[in-house]
From TrEMBL:
Keywords: Flavoprotein, FMN, NADP, Oxidoreductase. This is NADH:flavin oxidoreductase/NADH oxidase. Residues 4-345 form the NADH:flavin oxidoreductase/NADH oxidase N-terminal domain. The keyword Flavoprotein applies. InterPro entries: Aldolase_TIM, OxRdtase_FMN_N, YqjM-like. It comes from Streptomyces durbertensis.
């Protein structure tokens, strides 16, 4: 029976436990000048706190593989070497705490060029600091959103290379896990779903055509990502449409193809490609999708979505429903959730030596970072 604080080996990497931080955008990077997209003090403090709190893996937020691939102008980026330096400071500290640093590589597609969420998240026109988004088809995400420029095959190939280039930079920055973002209605997910992909060429039409871009990106990233390090892929298992959308059956098919191309774990979420769709949320509501992928393909999976309590998380692993859990907003509310979970479950999670007087658990040496 798998426990929440059991180590997890993927390729040559051993993650210290199965409580992981999900990628969550902070929208706090500089938006102009040479430091555009560079991680700063906020990002360092934010990710460092979760490492100190005991997360076994910290996945840094969706990071644009190009400037046009950002969700907002304030997103992190990995399209130049200056951005590498900012992230290296974070990975050095995380590894010093025994936490594995990971990063999500992303292109926002037709959902790019929006304002920060706390400013309303509305689309930004070029004159307001935004840009024209791109997508598989000239279909706006929602009312009030611009019609994206339909990508040519040449531009699709260029973006594929940008994912690979960003993966090289991620390795240089010290990351040990790379995750390709294929979920939540961003570019790769837009290609996957017939709701947003109306192409009639080799990147559209049937399932093979619609999954082609995702698989080519995966092959390009895997080709530059070291064999000894794991590669993740995040997917929305369903659009939550009764017809005309991406389905869990499609996800199972894709998962098998991704496994054949060197993906080591599927990070299973849902939704994001269709506005105002009804989603039956509740504790652990996305876990069954992860379980189905695991059972039908044998590919390891991480479950995410309203996993908030230690007993709940432990139960998911004990029942064999997932191989790890990803916590999102709960870790925003409670950075040291893993330490609380260990106390409640009678497990031991290391804590930094300077905190050992206050938190039960085996102290560990704090490495200079």
């Amino acid at each position: 029976m798998t426990g929440l604080f059991d180590p997890f080996a993927l390729r040559s990497l051993t993650l210290p436990n199965r409580v992981w931080m999900a990628p969550m955008c902070q929208y706090c990077a500089p938006t102009t000048g040479a430091d555009t997209g560079v991680a700063g003090d906020w990002h360092f403090a934010h990710y460092a706190a979760r490492a100190v709190g005991g997360a076994g893996l910290v996945l840094v937020e969706a990071t644009g593989v190009s400037s046009e691939g950002r969700i907002s102008p304030a997103d992190l980026g990995l399209w130049n070497d200056r951005q590498v330096a900012g992230l290296r400071r974070i990975t050095r500290f995380l590894t010093g705490q025994g936490t594995v640093p990971g990063i999500q590589l992303a292109h926002a597609g037709r959902k790019a060029s929006t304002d920060r969420p706390w400013r309303g998240g509305s689309p930004l026109a070029p004159e307001a600091g935004g840009w024209r988004p791109v997508g598989p088809s000239p279909l706006a995400f929602d009312d009030g959103h611009p019609v994206p420029a339909e990508l040519t095959v040449d531009r699709i190939h260029k973006i594929t290379r940008q994912f690979a280039d960003a993966a090289r930079r991620a390795l240089d920055a010290g990351f040990q896990v790379a995750e390709i973002h294929g979920a939540h209605g961003y570019l790769i997910g837009e290609f996957l779903s017939p709701h947003s992909n109306h192409r009639t060429d080799g990147y559209g039409g049937d399932l093979a055509g619609r999954t082609r871009f995702a698989l080519e990106v995966t092959e390009a990233v895997r080709a530059v990502w070291p064999d000894e390090l794991p590669l993740f892929f995040r997917v929305s298992a369903t659009d939550w449409l009764t017809e005309g959308g991406w389905t869990v059956e499609d996800t199972v098919t894709l998962a098998a193809e991704l496994r054949n191309r060197g993906v080591d774990l599927l990070d299973v979420s849902t939704g994001g490609n269709v506005p105002d769709v009804r989603i039956p949320t509740g504790p652990g509501y996305q876990v069954p999708f992860a379980t189905r992928v695991r059972e039908e393909t044998g590919l390891p999976v991480a479950a995410v979505g309203l996993i908030t309590e230690p007993g709940q998380a432990a139960g998911i692993l004990a029942a064999g429903e997932a191989d790890a859990v990803l916590l999102g907003r709960q870790l925003l509310r409670e950075p040291s959730w893993p330490q609380r979970a260990a106390r409640e479950l009678g497990a031991t999670v290391p804590v930094p030596a300077p905190y050992s007087r206050a938190v039960r658990g085996r102290p560990r040496e704090l490495v200079d970072a």
